[in-house]
Write a structure and sequence with these properties.
- The protein is built from six helices and six strands; from the N terminus they run ααβααββββααβ.
- Helix 2 crosses helix 6 (about 190-200).
- With about 210 residues, it is an alpha+beta fold.
- About 10% of the residues are buried.
- It has two domains: about 10-95 and about 190-205, no CATH class; about 100-155, no CATH class.
Length: about 210
């Protein structure tokens, strides 16, 4: 003859009959469906006897429990959401910045002097002379000074940035081994792990 016991499903039905929800205060990170988790907890441990006989105490304790394990559950969600190549075990990202700066200047200063001397002489012959005689002479001189200064500044900036990625299998494990590990990881179920944590805290797992 089996003794009467107060089970998790009994506590759940107690709140349902009162128009409430036993899991009302259960707080979960984004990415976890509360209804899926709640149904899995009831499926896996609904017939186990609860560790606390008061449904109200269990209801309130769920807020404390979910707050305690919130960061753990959040890390699980983020870890399972990481994108990766299952058959690669090496992935390195690199970023380079090349800086090539050059500045140049050139100066030139000079004075240009031009001096020109011109001499012009006019002659004409007298009526009583058989040769030409000087008539007048014009001397001219031109002086010019020119100053010039040239300055040129040149700045060259050849900065460049580029990224690189090296990834693949470096040979530590074979592709077949990594594939087997990926298949094993597929058995790791987020809802099942959280359910196990919950049942350890709230029920007495005795199988009859």
């Amino acid at each position: 003859m089996s003794s009467a016991k107060f089970t998790l499903i009994g506590a759940y039905q107690y709140y349902n009959n009162a128009g409430g929800d036993l899991f009302e205060l259960l707080t979960l990170p984004e990415g976890i469906d509360k209804d899926i988790l709640k149904n899995n907890i009831l499926l896996q441990g609904g017939e186990f006897e609860v560790q606390h006989s008061s449904p109200v105490f269990i209801h309130d304790a769920m807020a404390i429990w979910s707050g305690t394990y919130y960061d753990t559950m959040d890390r699980w969600v983020k870890a399972l959401a990481i994108e990766y190549a299952p058959l690669e075990n090496y992935d390195r990202m690199e970023h380079w910045t090349d800086e090539l700066d050059g500045t140049g200047s050139s100066n030139s200063t000079g004075t240009l002097d031009n001096t020109t001397t011109e001499e012009t002489e006019h002659t004409k012959s007298a009526f009583d002379s058989s040769s030409y005689q000087p008539y007048d002479k014009v001397n001219g001189r031109t002086v010019s000074d020119t100053d010039s200064t040239d300055r040129t500044n040149t700045t060259i900036n050849n900065d460049s940035e580029h990224n690189g990625r090296i990834h693949g299998n470096i040979g530590v494990t074979t592709s077949q081994q990594m594939l087997n590990q990926e298949l094993d990881l597929g058995y790791w179920n987020l809802y099942q792990r959280i359910t196990q944590l919950f049942l350890q805290e709230f029920v007495i797992p005795v199988y009859e």
